[in-house]
Write a structure and sequence with these properties.
Elements: H1 7-22, H2 30-37, H3 57-72, H4 77-83, H5 85-90, H6 94-110, H7 120-130, H8 135-138, H9 153-157, H10 163-175, H11 181-198, H12 203-217, H13 223-226, H14 229-232, H15 238-262, H16 269-272, H17 279-292, H18 297-305, H19 311-326, H20 333-338, H21 342-355
Helix pairs in contact: 1-18, 1-19, 1-21, 3-6, 4-21, 6-7, 6-10, 10-11, 11-12, 11-15, 11-19, 12-15, 15-17, 17-18, 17-19, 18-19
Length: 356
């Protein structure tokens, strides 16, 4: 399958734009959001301070994942292009990815801009990673918060990855902080949704293909990437450990599909599908926001940001999905240029879009 032109840039900027739009609406009820920002159809990109549009830890940690993968693939962007995407992807082993993620997660932990109400699971796990303990001992085993999959988008966009490698990396980056099987499965499924859209998947095919992928993956425990995580969790066996997570994701997909059959675009997405504080709900509600507006990128992030739940994470994922399918076409240059971290997003996008 051929990748959509500028899919990396479209997806990463979509994630950041959605994050920025949902940042000021998080923790507000629907009446409060409407009073402050008007109806969802008229929402624009809010300015936070001066001329800079602020984002949250969702974008910060997505960049940490992306930059860790660049580092683990061994080389600067120019050298990586010379070697080819396949060679760079081959360098992404469990050991190299874990080491790079640990380094970048700890750097995020101490970043002075890490002051956007980050999740306690990420903070606690990253502090343990800094102490040098095995990541299986650092992770918060019972957590399936959406912090696991709000940052997984870059994994779907790395050129040259095979399907098993992409699934393993998606689950590993989640598992470093969130050890619950649903956090792993939802991150894998979120990455797969982004990959499908970046390779031209039609909207009507998206949920059926995601459901099929979840069914096929139910008993696949990526031991090379996850090690003894299932045993640490006290699961009877690895297959049943990971199946629990996939089953929760399948139920979330069913909830989104049922809400789409009604297709009430005026309804609060968090009421229609889920508030999004947990991984499978963040995915399902973001998919709903993308699909209920027929894939229109700006409408998708506005509908997601205008919600009563974890609006920044839902809108970040909705923007990542929309941008993967549409590229940069629908993100106005003035929005992109005003974003905090615009330079880092552009550099990462240029490296991977050029290598595709």
């Amino acid at each position: 399958m051929k990748r959509v032109g500028k899919a990396v840039a479209g997806s990463l900027f979509g994630l950041a734009i959605g994050d920025a739009m949902g940042y000021p609406t998080e923790f507000l009820g629907m009446a409060q959001i409407t009073a402050k920002f008007g109806p969802w159809e008229k929402m624009g990109l809010p300015l936070s301070a001066g001329d800079v549009v602020r984002v949250t830890d969702d974008t910060q940690m997505a960049l940490a994942v992306g930059e860790a993968l660049v580092e683990a693939s061994a080389g600067e962007p120019g050298a990586r292009r010379a070697r080819g995407a396949g060679a760079a992807a081959a360098a992404l082993s469990p050991a190299s990815v874990e080491a790079a993620l640990r380094k970048h997660f700890v750097a995020w932990l101490h970043d002075p801009d890490n002051n956007r109400a980050p999740g306690q699971t990420c903070l606690r796990a990253c502090a343990a990673l800094e102490r040098g303990v095995r990541w299986q001992d650092a992770t918060i085993m019972g957590s399936k918060g959406c912090g696991a999959n709000m940052r997984v988008t870059p994994v779907a966009l790395v050129p040259g990855l095979g399907s098993e490698q992409r699934a393993g990396i998606a689950q590993l980056q989640a598992a470093l902080t969130h050890g619950h099987p649903t956090a792993l499965a939802a991150s894998d499924l979120t990455a797969h949704a982004t990959w499908l859209l970046a390779h031209g998947c039609e909207r009507d095919d998206l949920l059926p293909r995601l459901r099929a992928y979840a069914q096929e993956s139910r008993h696949t425990y990526h031991a090379e990437w996850l090690g003894d995580l299932a045993a640490k969790a006290g699961a009877p066996d690895p297959r049943s450990f990971i199946a629990f997570g996939w089953d929760e994701c399948l139920r979330a997909l069913d909830t989104a599909a049922a809400a789409l059959r009604v297709k009430d675009v005026s309804r609060d997405p968090s009421e229609a599908v889920g508030a999004g504080w947990i991984a499978e709900e963040a995915l399902a509600t973001a998919l709903y926001c993308y699909l209920v507006v027929d894939g229109d990128p700006r409408a998708a992030v506005a509908r997601a940001a205008h919600s009563s739940g974890d609006s920044d994470s839902i809108a970040a994922l909705a923007g990542a999905f929309a941008g993967a399918r549409s590229g940069l076409t629908y993100w106005p240059p003035e929005w992109r240029e005003a974003l905090e971290y615009e330079g880092r997003i552009s550099r990462l996008a240029a490296a991977w879009d050029d290598a595709a």
